[in-house]
Amino acid sequence: MALRMLCSSVLRTGTDIGVSNARTFGTAAILCRRSAPLGPMPNEDIDYKNLESLEKYRSYTRYLKKAEEAKNTPAWWKTYRQYQEQEDPGHGVERANIGLPHCRPSRVKEARVRKRVVKENRRSLELERAMRLRTFKVSLDRVQAGWEETSGPYHVQRLADHYGIFKDLFPMAYFYPRFILRVSYGQDSPAQVHYGNHLTPTEAAVAPQVSFEAEEGSIWTLLLTSPDEHLLDSEGEYVHWLVGNIPGGAVTSGEELCPYLAPIPAKGTGFHRYVYILFRQEETIDFHEDIRPLPCVSLSERSFKTLEFYRKHQDSMTPAGLSFFQSQWDQSVTNTFHNILDMKEPVFEFERPPVYHPPQVKYPHGQPLRYLDRYRDGQEHTYGIY
């Protein structure tokens, strides 16, 4: 009776204002009547009055223990680390630092020096005027010198790791190049060797000018090798230049153990790495076993391994400098093989496998518009011409 009176009042009100709410009210009532039950609520089976019985929710240590057990459970798939260890067994293994010892300056002292320099710059009227008039210039030589003294060796070490220098020349070892090597080819238009830049074999045809900062009375060894050139041994190298017992920084006054040979990257083999390594000697070394017979124009006589050379003299020398470049075949390589090495030039070509095309269908769906071009010259039937 009450529901009937309520519906009558709603109809009467809607008629007075010109709006009929009867259908809306009826639809809402039907939807409420037809809605499915909500079912059991989450965690309604938990006895909240007896929380002591909920062991799995009470102890976080137990959860960590279960998670550790699940983590150590062997799975059928391989992780990224397992793939890396399969391809490179030495991946992730700690390597030995065979370079010169170095004590990194205290960060507190660096911060104090930087703070003092900032104060001096703020008090400088000339610097303020140059910045305001936009005439201030930064000396790139000072920037380069600051980089070489601070973070330069660490950046060069990371670059050498990126190019695989240590992996191929000093397996399971590395070093920080504390001495910066400056290698320059040519006189008129000098081509500098940096850390992975590209030089042509024509530019590196003759021995370069090498300089580095050395103390008076120090003794050095300079090596130029290529880990990518050997034609018979994939793990071997060809030594291009070897000079030992260099007094101070005078490379021309050292004992030339192997004369200079221009880069010979074979045609079709891409870019090759050519690495300069500077060793600091503790004393004068007898290199009579490492001297190559002159004029040393045979590749078999230039077969070399940097690791064996270092192990032989590791008690008397330490790697201290590093520089390298990349080179690709050009016409001068042919001249080097024919006229200097007196041998046939090796040429490599890549044989591409034939392109695979799936069997042709008469009504291709989802294929590009030029679908039939794949089968025009083949043995398979071509359904029409478009």
UniProtKB/TrEMBL annotation:
Sorted alphabetically, the keyword list is:
Coiled coil, Mitochondrion, Ribonucleoprotein, Ribosomal protein, Transit peptide
Asked if the Swiss-Prot or TrEMBL record annotates the protein with the keyword tRNA processing, the reply is: no
Subcellular localization is given as: Mitochondrion
- Please name the InterPro entries in this protein's record: PEBP, PEBP-like_sf, PEBP_euk
Residue stretches in coiled coil: none
Pfam family for this entry, one: PBP
- Among its keywords, does the record have Transit peptide? yes
Coarse class of the protein's main subcellular location? mitochondrion
Q: What highest taxon heads this organism's lineage?
A: Eukaryota
Q: Give the record's GO CC terms.
A: mitochondrial inner membrane; mitochondrial large ribosomal subunit
Give the family per the record.
Belongs to the phosphatidylethanolamine-binding protein family. Mitochondrion-specific ribosomal protein mL38 subfamily.
* Protein name from the UniProt record: Large ribosomal subunit protein mL38
Biological source species: Salmo salar (Atlantic salmon)
